[in-house]
Design a protein that fits this description.
Layout lengths: L1 H28 L7 H8 L6 H36 L11 H15 L9 H26 E2 L2 E2 L1 H24 L3 H12 L7 H20 L1 H6 L4 H6 L4 H23 L5 H13 L3 H25 L8 H23 L1
Antiparallel strand pairs: 1-2
Helix pairs in contact: 1-3, 1-13, 3-8, 3-11, 3-12, 3-13, 4-5, 4-6, 4-11, 5-6, 5-8, 5-11, 8-11, 12-13, 13-14
Amino acid sequence: MASTSTRQFVLTVIIGVGLILLTAYISLTNGAFDITLRDIVRTLLRIQPQHDFDLVIFEFRLPRIVIAVLVGMGLGMAGAVVQSLTRNNLADPGILGINAGAGMAMVIFLFFYQGKMKGTSWTSILAMPLVGLIGGLGAALLIYLFSWKNGRLESQRLLLTGIAIASGLTAVTLFITLKMNAKDFEMAAVWASGSIYNANWKYILSILPWLVLLIPILVSRSRILDVFQLKEDTVRSLGVTVEKQQALLLLASIGIVSACVSVSGGIGFIGLMSPHIARRLVGIAHKRLLPVCAIVGALLVIVSDFIAKTLFTPAELPVGVVIAIIGVPYFVWLLYRNKHKQ
Protein backbone atom coordinates (compact mmCIF):
# COMPACT_ATOMS: atom_id res chain seq x y z
CA MET A 1 0.00 0.00 0.00
CA ALA A 2 2.81 2.37 0.96
CA SER A 3 4.74 1.67 -2.22
CA THR A 4 1.57 2.19 -4.28
CA SER A 5 0.89 5.56 -2.66
CA THR A 6 4.54 6.54 -3.10
CA ARG A 7 4.41 5.66 -6.80
CA GLN A 8 1.19 7.62 -7.16
CA PHE A 9 2.79 10.63 -5.44
CA VAL A 10 5.90 10.50 -7.64
CA LEU A 11 3.78 10.09 -10.78
CA THR A 12 1.56 13.02 -9.73
CA VAL A 13 4.60 15.25 -9.15
CA ILE A 14 6.16 14.31 -12.49
CA ILE A 15 2.92 14.94 -14.40
CA GLY A 16 2.28 18.18 -12.51
CA VAL A 17 5.76 19.56 -13.15
CA GLY A 18 5.48 18.48 -16.78
CA LEU A 19 2.18 20.36 -17.16
CA ILE A 20 3.73 23.47 -15.58
CA LEU A 21 6.67 23.32 -18.00
CA LEU A 22 4.33 22.76 -20.94
CA THR A 23 2.13 25.72 -19.94
CA ALA A 24 5.22 27.87 -19.36
CA TYR A 25 6.47 26.96 -22.85
CA ILE A 26 3.10 27.86 -24.42
CA SER A 27 2.98 31.12 -22.49
CA LEU A 28 6.57 31.94 -23.43
CA THR A 29 6.10 31.34 -27.15
CA ASN A 30 2.61 32.75 -27.72
CA GLY A 31 1.34 36.29 -27.57
CA ALA A 32 1.31 39.48 -29.59
CA PHE A 33 4.91 38.63 -30.54
CA ASP A 34 5.25 34.91 -31.31
CA ILE A 35 8.60 33.24 -30.62
CA THR A 36 9.77 29.81 -31.76
CA LEU A 37 11.39 27.22 -29.50
CA ARG A 38 14.63 27.65 -31.45
CA ASP A 39 14.61 31.39 -30.73
CA ILE A 40 14.02 30.74 -27.02
CA VAL A 41 16.89 28.25 -26.77
CA ARG A 42 19.26 30.55 -28.65
CA THR A 43 18.24 33.49 -26.44
CA LEU A 44 18.61 31.58 -23.18
CA LEU A 45 21.99 30.13 -24.23
CA ARG A 46 23.07 33.59 -25.49
CA ILE A 47 23.74 32.33 -29.05
CA GLN A 48 23.62 35.43 -31.25
CA PRO A 49 21.13 37.14 -28.92
CA GLN A 50 18.74 39.69 -30.39
CA HIS A 51 17.41 42.71 -28.54
CA ASP A 52 13.74 42.03 -29.42
CA PHE A 53 13.86 38.46 -28.10
CA ASP A 54 15.74 39.55 -24.96
CA LEU A 55 13.13 42.19 -24.25
CA VAL A 56 10.11 39.92 -24.73
CA ILE A 57 11.53 36.89 -22.89
CA PHE A 58 13.53 38.42 -20.03
CA GLU A 59 11.56 41.60 -19.37
CA PHE A 60 7.94 40.59 -20.05
CA ARG A 61 7.16 36.89 -20.24
CA LEU A 62 9.68 34.98 -18.11
CA PRO A 63 9.28 37.13 -14.94
CA ARG A 64 5.53 36.79 -15.27
CA ILE A 65 5.76 33.00 -15.50
CA VAL A 66 8.10 32.81 -12.50
CA ILE A 67 5.85 35.07 -10.40
CA ALA A 68 2.81 32.96 -11.34
CA VAL A 69 4.58 29.79 -10.21
CA LEU A 70 5.84 31.29 -6.93
CA VAL A 71 2.50 32.89 -6.03
CA GLY A 72 0.59 29.72 -6.88
CA MET A 73 2.96 27.61 -4.78
CA GLY A 74 2.72 29.92 -1.79
CA LEU A 75 -1.05 30.34 -1.83
CA GLY A 76 -1.66 26.62 -2.43
CA MET A 77 0.48 25.51 0.51
CA ALA A 78 -0.82 28.23 2.82
CA GLY A 79 -4.39 27.19 1.99
CA ALA A 80 -3.68 23.58 2.98
CA VAL A 81 -2.23 24.70 6.32
CA VAL A 82 -5.16 27.03 7.08
CA GLN A 83 -7.65 24.25 6.32
CA SER A 84 -5.76 21.89 8.61
CA LEU A 85 -5.52 24.37 11.48
CA THR A 86 -9.21 25.29 11.30
CA ARG A 87 -10.33 21.69 10.56
CA ASN A 88 -12.52 23.22 7.87
CA ASN A 89 -12.13 22.30 4.20
CA LEU A 90 -13.92 25.51 3.17
CA ALA A 91 -11.30 27.72 4.81
CA ASP A 92 -8.95 29.75 2.65
CA PRO A 93 -6.54 32.66 3.33
CA GLY A 94 -8.76 34.86 1.14
CA ILE A 95 -12.03 33.82 2.77
CA LEU A 96 -10.50 34.21 6.26
CA GLY A 97 -9.54 37.82 5.56
CA ILE A 98 -5.76 37.43 5.46
CA ASN A 99 -5.64 38.50 1.81
CA ALA A 100 -7.94 41.43 2.57
CA GLY A 101 -5.77 42.58 5.49
CA ALA A 102 -2.58 42.39 3.46
CA GLY A 103 -4.32 44.07 0.52
CA MET A 104 -5.64 46.94 2.64
CA ALA A 105 -2.17 47.55 4.08
CA MET A 106 -0.74 47.59 0.55
CA VAL A 107 -3.34 50.10 -0.67
CA ILE A 108 -2.68 52.35 2.34
CA PHE A 109 1.03 52.13 1.53
CA LEU A 110 0.37 53.08 -2.10
CA PHE A 111 -1.95 55.91 -1.00
CA PHE A 112 0.53 57.63 1.32
CA TYR A 113 3.48 57.19 -1.02
CA GLN A 114 1.74 58.06 -4.27
CA GLY A 115 3.92 60.41 -6.24
CA LYS A 116 6.74 60.13 -3.67
CA MET A 117 8.14 56.72 -4.46
CA LYS A 118 8.54 54.98 -7.79
CA GLY A 119 6.58 51.75 -7.94
CA THR A 120 9.60 49.80 -9.19
CA SER A 121 12.23 51.26 -6.88
CA TRP A 122 14.07 48.80 -4.65
CA THR A 123 12.91 50.63 -1.52
CA SER A 124 9.22 50.28 -2.29
CA ILE A 125 9.44 46.73 -3.66
CA LEU A 126 11.37 45.38 -0.67
CA ALA A 127 9.01 47.19 1.72
CA MET A 128 5.88 45.73 0.10
CA PRO A 129 6.06 42.22 1.64
CA LEU A 130 6.68 43.76 5.08
CA VAL A 131 3.69 46.07 4.69
CA GLY A 132 1.57 43.16 3.52
CA LEU A 133 2.71 41.09 6.50
CA ILE A 134 1.64 43.81 8.93
CA GLY A 135 -1.80 43.95 7.32
CA GLY A 136 -2.14 40.17 7.24
CA LEU A 137 -1.10 39.85 10.88
CA GLY A 138 -3.53 42.59 11.89
CA ALA A 139 -6.42 40.86 10.14
CA ALA A 140 -5.44 37.48 11.58
CA LEU A 141 -5.25 38.93 15.09
CA LEU A 142 -8.74 40.42 14.80
CA ILE A 143 -10.14 37.15 13.48
CA TYR A 144 -8.34 35.17 16.18
CA LEU A 145 -9.67 37.36 18.99
CA PHE A 146 -13.29 37.22 17.79
CA SER A 147 -13.10 33.46 17.15
CA TRP A 148 -11.73 32.54 20.57
CA LYS A 149 -14.42 31.13 22.83
CA ASN A 150 -14.20 29.20 26.10
CA GLY A 151 -10.45 28.92 25.79
CA ARG A 152 -10.57 27.35 22.33
CA LEU A 153 -10.50 28.38 18.70
CA GLU A 154 -13.77 27.36 17.06
CA SER A 155 -13.38 26.59 13.35
CA GLN A 156 -16.94 27.54 12.32
CA ARG A 157 -16.73 30.79 14.26
CA LEU A 158 -13.34 31.44 12.66
CA LEU A 159 -14.78 31.03 9.15
CA LEU A 160 -17.75 33.34 9.76
CA THR A 161 -15.60 35.95 11.51
CA GLY A 162 -13.09 35.84 8.68
CA ILE A 163 -15.76 36.43 6.05
CA ALA A 164 -17.16 39.39 8.01
CA ILE A 165 -13.78 41.01 8.63
CA ALA A 166 -12.70 40.41 5.03
CA SER A 167 -15.82 42.23 3.83
CA GLY A 168 -15.11 45.16 6.13
CA LEU A 169 -11.45 45.41 5.12
CA THR A 170 -12.38 45.21 1.44
CA ALA A 171 -14.82 48.11 1.93
CA VAL A 172 -12.09 50.18 3.63
CA THR A 173 -9.71 49.34 0.77
CA LEU A 174 -12.26 50.50 -1.80
CA PHE A 175 -12.82 53.75 0.13
CA ILE A 176 -9.08 54.47 0.18
CA THR A 177 -8.67 53.76 -3.53
CA LEU A 178 -11.45 56.25 -4.28
CA LYS A 179 -9.35 58.93 -2.57
CA MET A 180 -6.43 58.36 -4.93
CA ASN A 181 -5.74 60.32 -8.07
CA ALA A 182 -6.91 58.79 -11.34
CA LYS A 183 -3.60 57.18 -12.30
CA ASP A 184 -2.96 55.60 -8.91
CA PHE A 185 -6.61 54.54 -8.58
CA GLU A 186 -6.40 52.60 -11.85
CA MET A 187 -3.22 50.86 -10.74
CA ALA A 188 -4.63 50.04 -7.28
CA ALA A 189 -7.93 48.77 -8.74
CA VAL A 190 -6.19 46.41 -11.16
CA TRP A 191 -3.79 45.26 -8.46
CA ALA A 192 -6.62 44.64 -5.97
CA SER A 193 -8.36 42.43 -8.54
CA GLY A 194 -5.29 40.23 -8.69
CA SER A 195 -2.82 40.86 -11.49
CA ILE A 196 0.75 39.92 -12.33
CA TYR A 197 0.99 41.79 -15.63
CA ASN A 198 3.57 44.15 -14.11
CA ALA A 199 5.84 41.32 -12.94
CA ASN A 200 9.58 41.92 -12.97
CA TRP A 201 12.74 40.40 -11.48
CA LYS A 202 12.68 42.82 -8.55
CA TYR A 203 9.30 41.46 -7.48
CA ILE A 204 10.68 37.93 -7.67
CA LEU A 205 13.67 38.84 -5.51
CA SER A 206 11.40 40.55 -2.97
CA ILE A 207 9.23 37.50 -2.26
CA LEU A 208 11.78 34.73 -2.81
CA PRO A 209 13.46 35.04 0.65
CA TRP A 210 10.04 34.80 2.34
CA LEU A 211 9.14 31.62 0.48
CA VAL A 212 12.59 30.07 1.00
CA LEU A 213 12.42 30.80 4.73
CA LEU A 214 8.78 29.97 5.50
CA ILE A 215 7.87 27.05 3.21
CA PRO A 216 10.38 24.70 4.94
CA ILE A 217 8.68 25.52 8.25
CA LEU A 218 5.37 24.24 6.88
CA VAL A 219 6.93 21.12 5.32
CA SER A 220 8.92 20.29 8.47
CA ARG A 221 5.67 20.19 10.46
CA SER A 222 3.80 17.88 8.13
CA ARG A 223 3.24 15.32 10.90
CA ILE A 224 1.92 18.01 13.24
CA LEU A 225 -0.54 19.05 10.54
CA ASP A 226 -1.64 15.41 10.21
CA VAL A 227 -2.28 15.28 13.96
CA PHE A 228 -4.38 18.46 13.78
CA GLN A 229 -6.96 16.51 11.78
CA LEU A 230 -7.89 14.76 15.05
CA LYS A 231 -10.06 16.27 17.78
CA GLU A 232 -8.32 18.89 19.89
CA ASP A 233 -8.49 16.81 23.10
CA THR A 234 -6.83 13.92 21.28
CA VAL A 235 -4.13 16.25 19.92
CA ARG A 236 -3.36 17.52 23.43
CA SER A 237 -3.24 13.96 24.79
CA LEU A 238 -0.48 13.20 22.26
CA GLY A 239 1.69 15.88 23.86
CA VAL A 240 1.36 18.50 21.12
CA THR A 241 1.57 22.11 22.32
CA VAL A 242 -1.50 23.16 20.34
CA GLU A 243 -1.35 26.94 20.79
CA LYS A 244 2.40 27.14 20.07
CA GLN A 245 2.20 25.04 16.91
CA GLN A 246 -0.96 26.81 15.72
CA ALA A 247 0.69 30.21 16.19
CA LEU A 248 3.89 29.18 14.38
CA LEU A 249 2.09 27.59 11.43
CA LEU A 250 -0.39 30.45 11.17
CA LEU A 251 2.39 33.06 11.27
CA ALA A 252 4.32 31.22 8.56
CA SER A 253 1.18 30.97 6.39
CA ILE A 254 0.37 34.66 6.88
CA GLY A 255 3.93 35.59 5.92
CA ILE A 256 3.71 33.53 2.72
CA VAL A 257 0.28 34.92 1.79
CA SER A 258 1.33 38.50 2.53
CA ALA A 259 4.45 38.18 0.38
CA CYS A 260 2.36 36.77 -2.49
CA VAL A 261 -0.31 39.49 -2.15
CA SER A 262 2.39 42.17 -2.21
CA VAL A 263 3.32 41.28 -5.80
CA SER A 264 0.12 39.78 -7.21
CA GLY A 265 -2.71 41.62 -5.46
CA GLY A 266 -5.87 39.95 -4.23
CA ILE A 267 -5.81 36.57 -5.98
CA GLY A 268 -8.36 34.37 -4.24
CA PHE A 269 -9.55 30.74 -4.31
CA ILE A 270 -6.10 29.21 -5.00
CA GLY A 271 -5.78 28.33 -1.32
CA LEU A 272 -9.26 26.82 -1.42
CA MET A 273 -9.07 24.76 -4.62
CA SER A 274 -5.47 23.48 -4.47
CA PRO A 275 -5.81 21.41 -1.26
CA HIS A 276 -9.06 19.82 -2.45
CA ILE A 277 -7.56 18.81 -5.79
CA ALA A 278 -4.35 17.62 -4.10
CA ARG A 279 -6.23 15.45 -1.59
CA ARG A 280 -8.02 13.68 -4.42
CA LEU A 281 -4.66 12.98 -6.05
CA VAL A 282 -2.44 11.89 -3.12
CA GLY A 283 -4.58 11.66 0.02
CA ILE A 284 -4.49 13.61 3.29
CA ALA A 285 -0.91 13.02 4.52
CA HIS A 286 0.69 16.47 4.51
CA LYS A 287 4.13 15.12 3.63
CA ARG A 288 2.72 14.46 0.17
CA LEU A 289 -0.16 16.93 0.24
CA LEU A 290 1.90 20.12 0.64
CA PRO A 291 4.20 19.59 -2.38
CA VAL A 292 1.23 18.64 -4.57
CA CYS A 293 -0.68 21.71 -3.32
CA ALA A 294 2.29 23.82 -4.44
CA ILE A 295 2.25 22.19 -7.89
CA VAL A 296 -1.54 22.48 -8.31
CA GLY A 297 -1.51 26.12 -7.15
CA ALA A 298 1.32 27.01 -9.54
CA LEU A 299 -0.47 25.30 -12.42
CA LEU A 300 -3.78 27.06 -11.67
CA VAL A 301 -2.17 30.51 -11.61
CA ILE A 302 0.02 30.04 -14.69
CA VAL A 303 -2.88 28.62 -16.76
CA SER A 304 -5.25 31.36 -15.55
CA ASP A 305 -2.68 34.04 -16.35
CA PHE A 306 -2.23 32.69 -19.88
CA ILE A 307 -6.02 32.78 -20.37
CA ALA A 308 -6.18 36.28 -18.89
CA LYS A 309 -3.60 37.72 -21.29
CA THR A 310 -4.76 35.96 -24.47
CA LEU A 311 -8.55 35.57 -24.28
CA PHE A 312 -9.36 39.20 -25.12
CA THR A 313 -6.17 40.28 -26.88
CA PRO A 314 -5.08 43.08 -27.07
CA ALA A 315 -7.08 43.80 -23.88
CA GLU A 316 -6.09 41.87 -20.78
CA LEU A 317 -8.06 40.58 -17.79
CA PRO A 318 -6.61 40.53 -14.27
CA VAL A 319 -5.64 36.94 -13.45
CA GLY A 320 -7.67 37.17 -10.23
CA VAL A 321 -10.85 37.62 -12.28
CA VAL A 322 -10.17 34.44 -14.29
CA ILE A 323 -9.45 32.45 -11.13
CA ALA A 324 -12.63 33.83 -9.51
CA ILE A 325 -14.69 32.71 -12.51
CA ILE A 326 -13.42 29.18 -11.82
CA GLY A 327 -13.30 29.47 -8.03
CA VAL A 328 -16.78 30.78 -7.24
CA PRO A 329 -18.64 27.84 -8.86
CA TYR A 330 -16.16 25.47 -7.22
CA PHE A 331 -16.83 27.02 -3.80
CA VAL A 332 -20.60 26.75 -4.33
CA TRP A 333 -20.20 23.10 -5.33
CA LEU A 334 -18.18 22.43 -2.15
CA LEU A 335 -20.90 24.04 -0.04
CA TYR A 336 -23.54 21.92 -1.75
CA ARG A 337 -21.51 18.73 -1.29
CA ASN A 338 -20.79 19.43 2.39
CA LYS A 339 -24.46 20.16 3.02
CA HIS A 340 -25.51 16.78 1.64
CA LYS A 341 -22.76 14.99 3.61
CA GLN A 342 -24.19 16.21 6.92
